[in-house]
Please model this.
Amino acid sequence: MEGKKLINGKSIDLGVCYYPEHWDKSLWPEDLDRMLEAGLKTVRIAEFAWNLVEPREGEYTYAFFDDFLNLAREKGMHVIFCTPTATPPAWLTEKYPEALNADLEGNLICHGSRRHYNYNSPVYRRFSRNITEKIASHYGPHPAVIGWQLDNEFNCENDLFYSESDTVAFRDFLKKRYKTLEALNRAWGTVFWNQTYTDWQEIHVPRKTNTNSVNPHLELDYYRFVSDSVCSFAGEQAEIIRKYCKEGDFITTNGVFGNLDYQRLRRESLDVLMYDSYPNFAYCLDDYQKEDSMKDRKWSRNLAEVRAVSPNFGIMEQQSGANGWNTRMEAPSPRPGQLTLWTMQSIAHGADYVSYFRWRTCTFGTEIYWHGILDYSGRENRRLQEVRQVSGKLEKLQEIAGAKYLAKVGILRDYDNIFDCRVDRWHDRVERVSRESLFTALQQAHVPFDYVYLESHETAESLKQYEVLFYPHGSILTKERMEILEAYVSAGGKLVMGCRTGYKDMNGKCVMDCLPGLAASVTGTDIPEYSFVAPDEGKIMADWDGALMEAAVFNDILAPVGETSKVLAVYTSGPYAGSPALIRNRFGRGEAYYFGGAFALDTAAVFLEKLGVAEPWKDVMELPAGCELAVREKSGKCYLFVLNYLSEPASIFLRKELRDLLEGCAISGTVRLQPYGVKVLECPVQQGCAADFEKCF
Ligand code: GAL
Model:
């Protein structure tokens, strides 16, 4: 990223999403002046504006955005330009309906909303390359342009594709993967229910079937195929932009959605990933969950997902007003302070660029209630004042630019298992519970954590920064991943695995090994029996030295194997009472733990406590449950962000004197945070908390 014009480790910047085409041109100059005055130095434009460059097939006109870019240059405003492929024009879809996506029954999706195309139509690919070429070659050299956004939110609205072109491309994808039909038939177990294929033409993307299920191994490959389609579509655009963009201009895309391997997308096409952060979804009227204590704080989990792709990332769209389409997603305006809180939440997690969605609320279309900083009139308002205050605050946080998020706990993920959860409800059910409760328990114990993708050989080296790694339900395991994990444990790491580990291969087929399959050796565990928790059994509990933990959803009944393996907890209720529920195996210099259930909230909390990673900053500060602690580290300094998500004031207690960056003074003892208040405190790097790793990676 060195040399890039944003997110380059040198500054933390603000920007805003702007739609020049939504406003009379006479408003542009004043809009840009007011943005700059508020500290918004970059605008993102044009992601839905195909017709303004190609109003009819093969007819090009550049004047509209030339005028805007020239004005931006004159004013000193930077611009992120977008490829407009999320909304193909009506002239295109009418003449070439094969560009449209189709539903499960093969009916074409109609024009009229957005993201209505499919990635594999050769015709659409041609148009997408062409418009990218026209836009990049014309606007790329413009000095106001500093970066490029590919499309808009790949796989948002819909991440399933069933057009004829998808079926054709799916066959090609499978031919590359399996080479022969025999290999494919074996991989998918097509002998079951007489699904054997004798010709590639017989294979289709999932279709409506009698039981509403398709072959699960086909379905797993289908999700991989969707991801592959996005990566290849995005890759074509990135390659074209790279030919024309200026030295230092960056390529990004926005959002995190389903059926897409973002690690690959970033590797192949992006300099950096940006996220669209709408914590206000937590307050949507139709799904406001009273029992969910995390609410908008959950966006920290999403930000951890983004950080796993780009350690320092950007927010392309940061909530700045009420949510709402005319058809759905009704949520209130951010309360005073929340706009600051959510911006700081993003920065606390590693964002070095935050761009608000959007400048002025649109007066027409589906998003008339999706408010921007300004309301329809554009008059001065409270939210713009708050944005101004945020930019004032950021002036004081500039030294944090490029700082790394500091976490000693990691949660391992991989796309094979993520996609398998889409196919397999048994898998998804345990994963869902553990994902929610691990996050909540980590938050409540103020433990900063990372998601870590078990991807490449680089992972082995980088894993040693984590004292504890959870790999909750890696049902699909591979030898390569297990080698990485074994190296991590034998070098001194602590690995925690949960029920349903290791029972599938890469095709999603169940292995015939004794479970937990490839994880048996590192965990010193055998699983002679297993079962779902029956609905009439209530909570199945396990006892770990007096700490009671729920073994939720599913129970693996365990047996220790070998001298290094020890039973730490037994089931205390249910049909398996008295049988082992948790085994610890000493492996090399480290330890692997196998727990027989999904991690309920109390269970996750017990693990954090027993493994010694709860409240890692307790020597420095005491925090109430309602506050999040996020830590960034750079050049021997830690920056502790304390975020109060509550509408009431909160008190923290500082055991040491720390520098309050926003106030510019040293503070200690009891410190009060306003409702939705934020503190950013500087502290020397903590010593002695890293695991004692051998240098054997
Ligand atoms: C995002 C999208 C924007 C806008 C916003 C509010 O998902 O990128 O274009 O639609 O949501 O709905």
About this structure: The chain has four domains: 1-11+273-399, 41-260, 409-610, 621-695. Residues 687-697 have pLDDT under 50 and may be disordered. The first strand starts at residue 13 and ends at 17.
